[in-house]
Design brief:
heterodimer, A: alpha+beta, Gyrase A, domain 2, Elongation Factor Tu (Ef-tu), domain 3, 2 domains, 17 strands, 18% helix, globular, B: mainly alpha, 79% helix, 0% strand, flat
């Protein structure tokens, strides 16, 4: 990975305020917000009552009664509709702030030269670093040093932090994202998937937090269950310029064993995201699995 | 917002166990939410108030509304 930045085109940014903001969000999201102090950030999920994923967002706690939710996969109005769904008599307000902010992803291989620009913070994990015109925080969905930079539009801070970095295209970013296993919510993992089917429960579901939407299913799976499918990054061996129409079924011995959901190309290499039944995982890592339309060839594990 | 309406709904919350000040806050929020929903769904304000109050009453008793209960039981 070389150092880069990528300017996101569409993101959802909402501000949540009110006396009941903590209690209400605690009842809606998979992470324990009572353990999130002002100045801290975590990624959390909004599930439905069956434990399937409806949304994912970084939750920035700015104050006792003030949060910013930042979602890459859902626009603000969609996120607000989901979060408002269960408001009854709660004192909580949702405001779409997407228009006010620009959002960049920064990928930094070695932090040595970068940390002084952030004021040499003692830790980056889970911390919001406040800038003159915005925030920067580590994106915990990546194992690499990947940051989200959220700045007021036209802020000069942007060039200060990105001047040594190379801007990458959408194709390059998508390739990097899929390769790193950071699947898009809810497009690549969504209302048909459980967090466990994408390994998201390890970091983004707090099993001891108490009641929230989807909690019964999460608790049952955690204590005695095992999911039958896995969402993985795959390589498409079609060697064609034009990819298949997605989603496309994936077959093993002519029987359905999963779904190919997304593909992206960089240079000559195509990679993508597929949800595959456990019985197909071994073959995916070996000879590969056929796509429903065999003229498009096979997918293999990346 | 009509103060009489707030008082009436606050009375319901007090009967459910809320303290007077909290009941007034909850009533104000519930009316505001009913107005939002009526506008969004192009529905009647009264029916939205009724739906939200039903949800609140079930919730105060530790139950889910029958419609939501079915959702929760389908695994």
């Amino acid at each position: 990975m070389h150092d880069f930045f990528y300017q996101h085109r569409t993101v959802g940014i909402i501000r949540i305020t009110g006396e009941d903001a903590e209690d209400y969000l605690q009842s809606q999201l998979t992470i324990d917000l009572r353990k999130l102090s002002p100045g801290q950030v975590r990624f959390g999920l909004r599930l439905n009552s069956k434990g399937k994923i409806l949304a994912g967002a970084h939750i920035l706690r700015l104050g006792e009664e003030e949060y910013i939710l930042f979602s890459q996969g859902l626009e603000a109005q969609g996120l607000i509709s989901l979060l408002e769904e269960n408001v009854v008599a709660d004192e909580v307000e949702f405001e779409d702030e997407s228009e006010n902010w620009a959002c960049l992803t920064l990928g930094i291989e070695k932090l040595g030269d970068f940390l002084p620009k952030l004021g040499n913070p003692s830790t980056l994990d889970g911390k919001i670093i406040k800038l003159e015109d915005g925030f920067i925080f580590k994106n915990e969905r990546f194992q690499e040093n990947v940051f989200f930079l959220i700045l007021k539009k036209n802020s000069p801070d942007s060039s200060t932090l990105t001047n040594d970095l190379k801007e990458i295209s959408m194709e390059e970013y998508e390739f990097f994202r899929m390769q790193a296993g950071c699947f898009s919510i809810p497009c690549e993992i969504g209302p048909n998937e459980l967090p466990q089917e994408a390994g998201l429960e390890k970091l983004f579901v707090d099993f001891n937090k108490g009641c929230y939407l989807g909690q019964e299913v999460m608790a049952r799976l955690h204590s005695m269950g095992q999911v039958q499918r896995k969402t993985v990054t795959v390589e498409w061996q079609g060697y064609s310029e034009s990819p298949p129409n997605l989603p496309m079924r994936v077959l093993i011995n002519q029987k359905n064993t999963g779904t190919l959901k997304a593909l992206t190309k960089l240079g000559k290499q195509w990679i993508g995201v597929a949800t595959i039944h456990q019985k197909g995982i071994e073959q995916l890592g070996g000879t590969g699995l056929n796509l429903e339309d065999e003229s498009f060839g096979k997918i293999t594990k990346l | 917002m009509n103060p009489e309406e707030i008082d009436q709904i606050a009375g319901i919350f007090q009967n459910l166990g809320a303290k007077e000040k909290q009941a007034t806050t909850m009533a104000t929020q519930l009316i505001k939410r009913a107005d939002q929903l009526a506008k969004k769904r192009n529905s009647s304000r009264v029916s939205e108030l009724q739906t939200l109050l039903t949800t609140a009453i079930y919730g105060a008793q530790g139950n889910l509304k029958p419609s939501k209960k079915e959702d929760s039981e389908q695994k």
